[in-house]
Amino acid sequence: MAVNLLLGLQWGDEGKGKIVDVLTKDYNIIARFQGGPNAGHTLEFDGIKHVLHTIPSGIFHDKAINLVGNGVVIDPVIFKKELDNLNKFNLDYKSKLLISRKAHLILPTHRILDAASEASKGKAKIGSTLKGIGPTYMDKTGRNGIRVGDLELNDWKERYRALANKHEAMIDFYDSKIEYDLVELENEFFEAVKVLKTLTFIDSEEYLHQAQKEGKTILAEGAQGSLLDIDFGTYPFVTSSNTTAAGACTGLGIAPNKIKDVFGIFKAYTTRVGSGPFPTELFDQDGETMAQVGHEFGATTGRPRRCGWLDLVALKYAVHVNGVTKLMMMKGDVLSGFKTLKICTAYKYQGKTITHLPYNIEPENVTPVYTEMKGWSEDLTGMTDPSQLPKELNEYISFLEKELETPITIVSVGPDRTQTIHR
Ligand code: IMP
């Protein structure tokens, strides 16, 4: 009946995986709609931390079906590693993991192309996770890609060879001096494809259509964040898919009028990994404290994340583009101990004060204008009820709700499933 969306409103790493895991009990189907193994969705429960890259974050629950949608790009090698991890926990995933035939495959040469393209950019590099995401989506829109459904056809290896040969010529063109052993990479790839083929491939748009007719509840899970959207993000420092709400329509085949709630996840401050503008970035002790207390290191690449104050101008933009109906604030606990908190409510831009996101937010173009608020010192990590939240945090939340004209329905106070306060 209802399809709800859950997506990140900043530059990714907002904590989507944790919230999907928390909400899964209310849904029949969890469906990933875009991105690929550039994502790292972290879930913690029973003292164990799990990181998922491609598999939807509802996989640890007994009943929900987890669907990898057509908008996702799948690297069989990384997918196999994810399955191996699930095997360690004796998880019976086969009966509840479905893959769209229309999802595109990341080939070993896509990964090399990604690295060669980044190397050729020098200082202008995107800071890609180098998982082959960009080149795979390029082949998708270039109509050259190989899809999961092709693996059921007899001639797929010939098509693979033709595409890999083309990629090799492109890699030579970059002259990046990247060394690779394609035979070894291909052996690993073909072994992983065998494992992938043991899973159930479906026409997922039809499956979801039937599920809606039967009154099943569906949660569409986004990856990365709105400011990394290929259209609406800080281009060219973005990923290669639509991370915003419309991506769920094209990435799953869900009609826009079937979407009910859009859950927007954001951190109580801001982080970014990789290159690109970040107006509220901090280079001082405050930024260092956020990084240390918040363990701000990429779940996929381990790279340190850049940290800064909450940027309400950018957040408002993301709320508008996505039509967010409910907000969920993550990592409130990381801000405990700051005497004063700053929130960017406007930018100085071309001599004016503006409250919308302009075309160019490079540091030489925008200077953040901050509102200061009193911080709190209480440790939030053991709190379970909204009545326990400190007064200053409630004021911080109320300020954001008023500015964003959207309620904050969850406040997360730690990485564990249980550290989640519903309001
Ligand atoms: P790509 O999608 O791997 O090509 O990376 C493009 C940009 O998006 C880089 O700045 C990455 O750091 C960033 N990015 C991609 N996936 C994620 C993610 O899951 N979290 C945060 N940043 C990401």
Please work out how many helical segments DSSP would assign. 11
Which runs of at least 5 residues are low in confidence (pLDDT < 50)? Answer: none
Based on CA inertia axes, which overall geometry fits? globular
Distance separating the two termini = 24 Å
With strands numbered from the N-terminus, the spatial order across the biggest sheet is 9-7-5-2-10-1-11-15-19-20
Helix residue percentage: 25-40%
Extended strand count = 20
Question: Could you say which structural class the secondary elements and strand pairing correspond to?
Answer: alpha/beta
Please tell me about this protein's structure.
The chain is of the alpha/beta class and 423 residues long. The protein is built from eleven helices and 20 strands. The strands form five sheets. The chain has a ten-stranded mixed beta sheet, with helices on both faces. Strands 14, 16, 17 and 18 form a four-stranded mixed beta sheet that branches. Strands 3-4 form a two-stranded antiparallel sheet. Helix 2 (76-88) packs across helix 6 and helix 3 (108-121) runs parallel beside helix 5 (156-174). Residues 11-13, 38-40, 126-129, 131, 133-134, 223-224, 228, 237, 239-240, 273-274 line the site of inosinic acid.
